Structure formats: structure tokens, C-alpha cells
Fold:
Amino acid sequence: MDKKRKSILTFIILFILNNLLLSQYNDSQSGLYQEQSYFIDPLVFYAKDSAKARIDIYVEIPLTTLQFKKNQNTQKFDANFEFLVSIINSENELVINNIVPETISRTPEEQKSIEDESEYRIKTFYLIPGNYKLSTTLKDKNNYKEYKIEKDINVPDFNATELSISSIMLLSDFVTDSMGRKIIYPLVTNNVGDLKDIYIFFEIYNNSNNTFPISINYKIVNEKDFSVKTGSFSYIITPGINQKIDKLNPYDYTIGNYKLQLFSNVYSNLSSEKDFSYRWTELPMTIENLDKAISEMIYIATNDELSYIKNAPSQAEKERRFLEFWKSKDPTLKTAKNEVMNEYYNRVKIANEKFSNYSVEGYRTDMGMVYIIYGNPSNIERHPFDDYSRPYEIWEYYDINKQFIFVDYTGFGDYRLITPIWDKRFKMR
Structure:
């Protein structure tokens, strides 16, 4: 690599790292982007002796989402919040509106391990068959922040056919107690990246009085709808509710999103689907595709470093090299969170949301580049409609005494930097 290029890029990398660690602003509070603050997994099951189905909403709240305040009376730290659940039917009628105030109390000693812990809840409701819109809101009463997740729910009529199947639950673990009962631990995040084996739980409902064998096939497809794994389970189905726990065949997953499909070749209505992801715990939630995440590293990695990662002999080795690079930038190796990587990809996501145009993704634009390297400007002066002038913006960074001017030469929102950050020969577009 040219020595000038290497020295310039090294300076930029050091500036990014310093800026990320000492940043005096908070992009997440601007409303542009936030890491997922909690997780829900709504599952639909048969409700015995009822024309309605049972909706179990599993909730996982990372404790780092909540603000804890010291209770002077108990000397413990309390998180006070409300969890709201509303469900609207296909006719836009509110059928469920549930608000539950809650408090979590922890000792000073317990607070030391807050980063790796979560609180779990389950909310149960009953609905007639149909399509619904689920909305959940977590309201932190200590800092007045709100977090919201919405999902669509389809409630089948389990009584309409001889055989039917419930939602699929992914399990983080399960154990068998002394009485032979299986105790399950739902994987609410639906991220299997930290699991050695993937187990699933589901129910098959037999409305007949007969006992008979059945084969359930499964297929796992990736984001491109390409089948990456298939298999089958064989069961003897008895009348009533048949609860099943089974293990999926091993597969060398790569970072990304997947869909599990259960189906029968004999009973066409016997089918269920489950979306899940594969990612390491330390990865920011913004990363959904490894190759794309590597391409987005152009402002923090040299060409040699990018080539080393991209040209790995296998996907597993590529993931290892990717993680190795980011661990070398981690300022706090003793913690699971890599603050530099989180902040970098947080900025990449915001750049893609704010600065993408008709021809290029936001992180590759001049505005996206400046934003990723320097962060949120101290001040933005916009001139979209000045007479005798093309649209332009001036970004000012008071703390580092820098100013960047962008001009939209095309009129289509493609703002170009007047003065490059470095020599044009080395400018990465």
C-alpha cells in the first residue's frame, strides 16, 4: 500500500476510535436508531374447551435497557416500568388492552452483573380465529423512555380440521425433572448463534379418536429463500394434544436470517413457520449479513485488512477473521460488548437510512462517510432553495474545529463533498 495512503488512513482510524470512545452526543436519543431494547415472541396454541386460541407472549427485557434508581428506604436499586399490550383485529377494533406496572429490585451486589442479565415475562390472552396486529410498549418510569415492538399474528381455527399444529417455539434449553416432565426454556430472541444444538417445541392437535403414525418434514431456508437444510420427524399421534420437543440436524450456519418450515406431505393444512437468526452475541443488532458488514468497514480498515477478511478460505474462517479484527479495536476486552463496533455499525445504519440516494447506499455517499468518521455534526446549515446556487449544506464540528461543505450538483439529493477528506486517488466510494 502507498505510504501516504497508509499514513492518512491510519490517522482516520485513530480519529474514529478516539471519536467513538469520547463522543459527546448520542445518536440513539435523536430517534434515528436504537438497538433492540427488548424482545417478544408471540406464540399461538390450542385452548382446551374453548372456541378461542391461547396467545402466549414471551418477553425478554435486558436489564441494561432499564434505568435503576437507588431506593433510600431499602438501599436496593429499583427499575420501575410499565408493559403495555394492545391487540387490534382485522376490523381495526381493539380487543386487548392490558397495562401492567412492574418493579425490579436488585441489591448493589446484583447490579454488578447487570450487563449479562435479563428479566423474563409471559403474557397470556385468548382470541378467536383471525388476523391481528399486536403492539407492545415498554415504558421506563425512571427515565420516561418508551420502546415499542409490533407484530402480526394469525390465529388459526384448531377445531376446523382433524389435525392441526401450533406455533413453533425455539428453545435455549430443556431439562427433564425427577417425575419425567420436560421443563422448557424459550429462546425469546430467536437468535441461535450461541446454541450448540437447536431444539424446537410445538404441539400437534388430533381432533379424532384415532391413534396413528405421522411424519413431519422440516426445511430451513435462508434470506434468498434457498433451502439449506431438510429433515423429518416421525411420531405416533394420540387423540388430543401431542407435545413435541425435537432437535434440528446440525448445520454450519453463517450470520443472517433464516426461516424454519414444518409441513406434512399428507395433511396440507399441517404447517407452521418460524423466523430465526444466527449471530454472535457480541455483534450489533444492525448486522444481518456478514459480507455486507465487511464491505461497510471501508472507513476503519485498510485494503489489506479487508482483503484478508474477504479472501478467507471458508465462511467460518471469514467470521473468525472479522471478529478478530473488531476485537483488536475493542477498548474493553473484559466485557461482552464491543463499544467501538457497536457505535461504528450504529452510524453505518443511520448513514444508510439518512443518506442513501437513487444510485448508492448511504454509507458510500460523502455525507455518509463524514457522518461515520466524525459522528453527528455540532451544527448543520442547510441551503436547499437559494437563488443562483445549487443546494448545499455546511456541517460544522466545533470540538475538532472542522467544517465540511456538500453540494447537490444533480438536484437528486446526491450531495458531494467539495474538499475531500483525503486525496481523491484514495477516496473510497
In short: The helical segments are 3-21, 108-111, 290-295, 303-310, 315-327, 339-355, 366-374. Confidence is low (pLDDT under 50) at residues 4-14, 20-34, 423-429. The two ends are 18 Å apart (CA to CA). Residues 3-21 form the longest helix (19 residues).
